[in-house]
Records
---
Amino acid sequence: MKSEIIAVGSEMLTPFRQDTNSLYLTEKLNELGVTVAFKTIVGDRRKDLVGAIRVALGRADILVLMGGLGPTEDDLTREAVAEALSLTLRRDAAQVAALHARAAAWRIPMPQNNLKQADVLEGAIVLSNPNGSAPGQWLDTTYSGYRKLIMLVPGPPNECRPLFDAECTPRLRSLLPARFIAKRTLRAAMIPESQADKLLAPIYTQYHDVETTILAHAGDIQLTLLCTKASLEAAQHRVDELAGRMEEALEDWLYSTDGEPLEQIVLYYLGLRQATLAVAESCTGGMVAGRITAVPGSSRSFLGGAIVYSDPLKTSFANVPPELIAQHGAVSHEVAEALAKGIRQRTGATLGLGVTGIAGPTGGTETKPVGLVYIALSDGQKTEVLEKTFRGDRDRVRQWATQQALDLIRRRLR
Amino acid sequence: MKSEIIAVGSEMLTPFRQDTNSLYLTEKLNELGVTVAFKTIVGDRRKDLVGAIRVALGRADILVLMGGLGPTEDDLTREAVAEALSLTLRRDAAQVAALHARAAAWRIPMPQNNLKQADVLEGAIVLSNPNGSAPGQWLDTTYSGYRKLIMLVPGPPNECRPLFDAECTPRLRSLLPARFIAKRTLRAAMIPESQADKLLAPIYTQYHDVETTILAHAGDIQLTLLCTKASLEAAQHRVDELAGRMEEALEDWLYSTDGEPLEQIVLYYLGLRQATLAVAESCTGGMVAGRITAVPGSSRSFLGGAIVYSDPLKTSFANVPPELIAQHGAVSHEVAEALAKGIRQRTGATLGLGVTGIAGPTGGTETKPVGLVYIALSDGQKTEVLEKTFRGDRDRVRQWATQQALDLIRRRLR
């Protein structure tokens, strides 16, 4: 079954806003065995919208229309579907009452044009929207002799997604052949994308029945494996088999076999070893700590640390001798090592991390270019120091350095 | 002139990847006075692609096709455009030579199927792509009696964008009537979105010739004003007039009249007052420092600080008496105040910031719910403490708290 998602709204045809619901809806449709063959974004012009709906009716079996269900003049999805299919709209008494009740409960006036939200397509089922005033609609109809399933869902994500899950998914499931889907997400850190593909392509191309998607971002590679079969066992078996072979190929670049982010894995290992961590960040300026503290419960293993952006703070918070900075420079193997050791001593953590580098765009020299970063990890006995040169702009250098720092901790604890 | 952007690639019909080039291209087209009326995303199936191109030819004057220009079997954009317009493809000798030269320079083998990248549409101009192997194409043709401008551009952002700027923009400009565009971006912090709209809608709705876009994100409101006129002066005049009235209405919520982010404004004021800043972050865990240090040159005014995630670190890095924590709790007015004062003393900064709160999802109580955050700012004489309760998940609470902290600093320095 082929589907098309139509996002309705002129704001999504500006440089400022993008449809994001369609990624969510695509996942849900795929889980039902439905392929998304087209996505269309169209503005609030009735003629354009009617045309886009007719085009979609000609090339897809399932249509999901998002947005354009509100009370304003620009909300034209109902009218456009009616025109494209030559259906009438009737004002639904129960919906009119619901709109009045909603306005009364919120103690807001109820302008006349709000009532257009109660207009229902001939033959459609009203889909209740507990998070907003505009209900959705479900239409099971024919067009040029072919059966078409058409869903009208509201645009705001907090209305669209719950409504689709509660009202559209069960209806689609009851109409479509049963499908069982197995899914796994593997993640690997700091492996170059080309190397990952060289290692993995010979493996995953043998599994034509498993859909493999590779996403790469600043030192992080995410592999999603998806398989649909007539039984869950069969689907799971294929995904697990492919995942097992990929895990082997990725060796210790692999950090997660179920999609968890790197910071969560680091916290998992810290908990397992009953170890604590503290950080002294210069060029990453709090980004390592920011990622770690994004995980709920991180306070069990993460003590905190210092943002040692200025040289005096490297001394006062992480015991780095000023002479060491004067001799080797703030961005040096020696200062990174001293930061890791110093923050560990100052906080009493099991592990101390130190990061210092040149994020750019200025500050680089011939011997110490922009992108040069030193990352050190100390457990009191051994202090490991990495020297890396990351490419890209300030933001990218800082993201790569943060990822490398977390991966260094993971490798030590593993 | 109406345009349609067609993004080609099955990966953009998965839940994992989204077209982002189209936002960039939309901005560039808008600047030329060209409206984007439709965006279509289509997979690597030839029949679907030919159909989508025919649909676009029927409803738009300018077509930009992105992607599907590479050497693999799945790269079918050239073939599909040829089929849709009944044009032939010819293998261009100069492009064949260029592909061989490129392979030789990179010392990589040159498989036979790479040569399809040298196939050029009958009547098309080859657009050079210095960042990749597949050139773009420009076709000025007719379809059903109407003139159509068709551009084929590569999909990778680092190839697509420079190629469009260097090869497509000048050609479009020479063909389209001269347009002058004025643009301004205003930003405001911590004003509720509904209140902003209530203040501003009566103003901007009077300016039908200025397109106003409002984006809201975690305590930040961004207003973009765009006006196109026959002269730059006329366009600038309208934008500046509307911007002036909006600035007045927004009062001191407004922080930026030219689009700069809040952290940059904070650094600007710090520089102006020759003041320095240090932070002691608990629940935001480094996010305030992370945003500030994202700005190049932030080291001139930002000293650093401490991530005081554990209670002992609140004492050792920011001089918070353990008794104070025992008496009032780590999340309290008193501890926030002590953090701000303490980090200021410890670092010698002009201003000290303290943030402590309950980001959730657990840790809330009846008197101290999830979302409660105390933010304090001290200059040694006066210490201001804000108590806020932010709604939403952990990530959202932390983002709002970070924004509120930066806004508190801005208001003090202004």
---
Amino acid sequence: MFRLRAAELEVSRISVPGAYITLVLVTLHDLDTPALLIDLDIMERNLARVADYAHQHQLRLRPHTKTHKIPALGQRQLALGAVGLTVAKVSEAEVMLAAASPDLLIAYPTFGAAKLARVMEVARHTRVTMSLDSLDVARPLSAAAQAAGLTIGVLAEFDAGMGRVGVDGGEPLLALVQGLEQLPGITFEGLAFYPGQIKMMDQEGAAELRRVSERVAAAIGTLARHGIACPVVSAGSTPTWMHTHEVTGVNEMRPGTYIFNDRNTVNSGACGWQDCAASILTTVVSTARPHQMILDGGSKTFSSDRLANSSEVTFGKLVEEPAALFHKMNEEHGFVDLTHATRQFRVGERVRVIPNHVCVAMNLHEQVYGMRGETVESVWQVAGRGKLQ
Amino acid sequence: MFRLRAAELEVSRISVPGAYITLVLVTLHDLDTPALLIDLDIMERNLARVADYAHQHQLRLRPHTKTHKIPALGQRQLALGAVGLTVAKVSEAEVMLAAASPDLLIAYPTFGAAKLARVMEVARHTRVTMSLDSLDVARPLSAAAQAAGLTIGVLAEFDAGMGRVGVDGGEPLLALVQGLEQLPGITFEGLAFYPGQIKMMDQEGAAELRRVSERVAAAIGTLARHGIACPVVSAGSTPTWMHTHEVTGVNEMRPGTYIFNDRNTVNSGACGWQDCAASILTTVVSTARPHQMILDGGSKTFSSDRLANSSEVTFGKLVEEPAALFHKMNEEHGFVDLTHATRQFRVGERVRVIPNHVCVAMNLHEQVYGMRGETVESVWQVAGRGKLQ
């Protein structure tokens, strides 16, 4: 009568009265709080949207897995056409080996003998690329690769306006790349940058996008004039993902947050609330103060990240009451101002909250729940959480 | 020649050339970054200072273990005279059972059948007390305790001005306590409050301390007029710990942060920099932008907590260069402005940072290192990290 994909269902109880088998599914109501929920239909739509875009514009897609930190979801991204996966640290690369990616990009200047030994161990299992912005980082990498008899791909990181890592795209970039080309054990594969400064939601966004495009073209041009080709030109950032094809010369994108989206993504204009796959289920634990309720999740559950590019001090959107103001948190307490709410809440009621920044929230949860409607379809260990080194 | 407490030393290599045994100690320089370091001499001084104060003023000391989350340190607090330990969630209570405390105070209104079953399991091993502020929380607790054949101690939480959890100290407190006294399976043991709103560093602090004292006296008085005694009156907060004896009627303190202290504690005036036991060792990974360096730790390493009670947007103090400004972070990047620095830094250099808020930083580290000078004397698993429920 019913066809069940049993491997994907969490069953809390099986009873066999007479000839019938009753499977009791685990639902939203069985979960203790706080719990991080992933709406699988929304997640699949988000994954397909960006995969289709990359395919349409012939862009390499190398999703940043720091958002989900779950090998099974990395595999899903590969199945949808990603050419490889991106990680932030070697510890994340070790975890993401389980996704059997043909390529792992460590998008971070990785320094120190202990980390480099681990990079080489990862590189014995799959192809490894690293982005970096100095010969101080490249030289020990080169030495370690040579000693291990391995070749590591390298992307030179330049600053397209973010002002974080990355050399200036003129002479300093040329000097870096010429230095990289002298080093054994590594192969220069192209350029990387992170355009996190672009705010598409304000009028300045389009202008900054044009400036980034000019900087990228100039960087590629500088190298070309010295006979250096850039097979890969890799850009990051979810808020700008649908503008990637507008940036001259870019042929690779590595968005992360797009798999779930969050309040920051909505605020950036890159998605709507209906595209937010992740929410955190909480319980009201106190209503003792007038016009206020306390949720059983604070900075240990959501992180204390404020809304990006906003002066607003709020920590999430309550699905059940958008007029409620989640304005303050301690480690275990979420303070919600109900002054403008259209309804009241009782102790013990459950409320879902869309977090400001889902990547750092994922990092705080040991496991998360893949939901099909109210049914728990998957329980995922967040294997890459808490990986600092 | 040397007497070694071998159980407390981490040894990286033992070689036996001829008749000599060479023990190579693990030092600061062997640790990969980012790493959270605890200066054991400072920690012991901090522990002794508060234990001595509690003893001198005949105050019960029930330290909040949410700061360290390590059973061995809970044991140390008990050895110095603590009457019990405080935790924030039942999951932390489960972890802290390993400290063999005669008493665990769950200082949080704990709701839901799953959590209550776990509370009862903890209560089979040690005495459990819970602070709460509603009969909606107390009734299911009472039912669960009665069903389990156990008795749980209860502290009624009232609001001494913080505006978080806690009922008003007048009629609502009386109604709560009278309700508690009717419930089987639980025993009313007294009052709890958290005076987190007191800012001793400004002139308002002393006035607010007096107001808190008046509110506490009024709450105790209201209950006394109805023949209700409060064997325990329990106050929290590290910034105000040395003022606990000034608050009328309080006979118990449950500070947490005092074991390590942090930038918030210094800012509150409750300690100096020389009392900060915890720092985070990081590596400079990029100096590509002028007057800036990037550290290999951001919000995943420090948390994104800003300095409390300050409009300053900074995330820690650099031990090696106090004039450097740690003004921005992403998940893996710490942005340090060196405009006013007296020295420059190279890629690969290591820098220690005193975090704004050590409790949330501890929650992000799987293990931390107890240091005696530059030697690693203890490696502790942070057993209570990431406990959300």
---
Amino acid sequence: MKLSKLAFQVTKTPPTNADTINHKLLVQAGYVRQLMAGVYTYTNLGLKVLRNIENIVREEMDALGGQEILMPALHPKANWLITDGWNKIDVLFKLQSRTGREYALGQSHEEIVTPLAKELIHSYKDLPLTLYQIQWKYRDELRAKSGILRCREFFMKDMYSFHENQADFEKFYGEVKAAYLRIFQRLGLTAKVTEASGGSFTQKISYEFMVLTEAGEDNIFYCDRCDYCINQEIATITEGDACPKCGAPLKLARAAEVGNVFDLGQKFSKDFDLTFANKNGEKKYPIMGCYGIGISRCMGVIVEKHHDEKGIIWPACVAPFAVSLIALNGAEPYANHVYETLQQAGIKVLFDDRFQSAGSKFAAADLIGLPIRLVISSRNGKQIEWKKRDQAESELIDLETVIKRLQ
Amino acid sequence: MKLSKLAFQVTKTPPTNADTINHKLLVQAGYVRQLMAGVYTYTNLGLKVLRNIENIVREEMDALGGQEILMPALHPKANWLITDGWNKIDVLFKLQSRTGREYALGQSHEEIVTPLAKELIHSYKDLPLTLYQIQWKYRDELRAKSGILRCREFFMKDMYSFHENQADFEKFYGEVKAAYLRIFQRLGLTAKVTEASGGSFTQKISYEFMVLTEAGEDNIFYCDRCDYCINQEIATITEGDACPKCGAPLKLARAAEVGNVFDLGQKFSKDFDLTFANKNGEKKYPIMGCYGIGISRCMGVIVEKHHDEKGIIWPACVAPFAVSLIALNGAEPYANHVYETLQQAGIKVLFDDRFQSAGSKFAAADLIGLPIRLVISSRNGKQIEWKKRDQAESELIDLETVIKRLQ
């Protein structure tokens, strides 16, 4: 794509209300625009990043045996009354039709997926069952903040599993945990599996996948020597206390939750009378699990973790394009040839074809943050300057080598 | 994919409240489930169809020079007050946060895209500008009906264009019209370009793209000899009257709107004070156009137009898989080999591996409606029975030929 054709361009001016790096850089580099607190438009560039993250998550959920479906965002009040979420969940957006029908906007989908599963689950032979979706969610947050980290409208993968017994749930939870850690690793994030509260409906603990960042809204205690990690909300310890697993002193840090796992027990199966016949023909309630990943939040956390003073540094798998291509004065004809050749080779290129100074083009490339920068200059003839976004050194290589490296 | 793995299976029992063929067949074949009137869950199969339609629409919008973005569904009340839509649009869903902040749910996005364009448009050099999105929309319909044709939550492509003058808008409208007719043709739909009312904000006419079907909710007069077509709502004629273009007698028929084009004039540019400097440096308001395609509605209309008494007959480009593969008793080992070979060749196969009678497998294949059915039977050795869903005759061909035809 030619940079001049992008509707939303880079800007030197940071947004006045940005409280976090992701908000500042994502707006300046042209990935998002804020409509109001906690509600954002994704530009063409931003949508590409979102789709890349979405596809990584989808791949791993499919590999787990999850089946993708798409449930609505508009829910009947009746379903939320059955679980008492209508009264108990303070972030639930409620609305009314002009004829007085009442709805909730989906902030999670247990209330929809459980009755849906009644059609699918009759016998132990129908278990386990795993359904997931990738979809926009709505939460009436008191304070939306931190750019796209804490939003009122956000993009999420939510998966729901149904099991014959606790052991089967635990086994599947282990697989999900491994898949989650793989996802976050692919996204360039180191997530800590953190014990946390199970929410308003259960005494059980849940697990949160936490990435250390000052932009986060949680405080966690973690151990440097082992993998022990606990949310301050449920912890009865202070910084420096001995790790209950290995004895090393615990550290306290700010973190952002990028994923979570809830052991829902039989709460929702009982509420919706979802039963199955076990091997002895007895009626039982399945054990349910719920597994979330905040896709738009991950995009924000990636920026918090991968940037420098010049801009974003996207991991290659989520970058909207593979390379920034820059032509210095006089080198446009060869740069055009390089652009066409790369595109024909199936390589995603963002070609800065604007009438701008070299300095301004370099600044734009750094701000946008694609993994590789290619510079074409008459001085270097057919040789192309190759530089990684996260390294200072550059090298001169020929077009064939550029293609070989990028394919 | 193996049919036994699909969470939502085919069923002989039609839904009790189905008023249209699309509702009946889409539920029976396992593509959708109704959550409440006008609100549906899309199963894995249904989601595949929706994505196929979405991708065709995206291709054609990109080819027009449209730039895809994604605007939120949650809108601030202020934007809707500026245009008076807050008071005038009866299908607008409104809601309130727990702190009393008021929002609308997007039923169209002029109120969001116009202020967004203020950042992008300053001079005539910034025009024309074309932005589009593909997204779920919300409408407080008094009567949601006809399966996925008239929904309260529906999937839509909406595009917005900004022009220097009326002539430029008309030129672009011509291009969009051609792209729309191409899209509907690709989807297997014959759309008639129909004159209609421009809505509550303008005296101008709009154009609706109408497909003749009894499941539709509009009545249109159309001419068989030329392309004249007008919505009964704005027509002052009756059936049999002479076509104003060619004199042939007009026909009256029921139709479903699958797309539309609105000449918005300067209504929204003026409301949001969106201006540009023309060649003489004078401040002017751009002319805006709005172009919709109902993606989920198209899915329903395709079923209305492409089915027989046995089930759906998907056009190949929207079908969730390319072929149904059926093994008759004893032929499973070779069928498995065929399944693996086709998948390795990149062909999307739905393999009916269930322990069911041949008749029940044939019925499922007909109901699901993939374009090609392959039957493996010990009787035929390595020869494979190839049958098109919309034809009665079958033929025996070898695996190599199957692959050649499907690639």
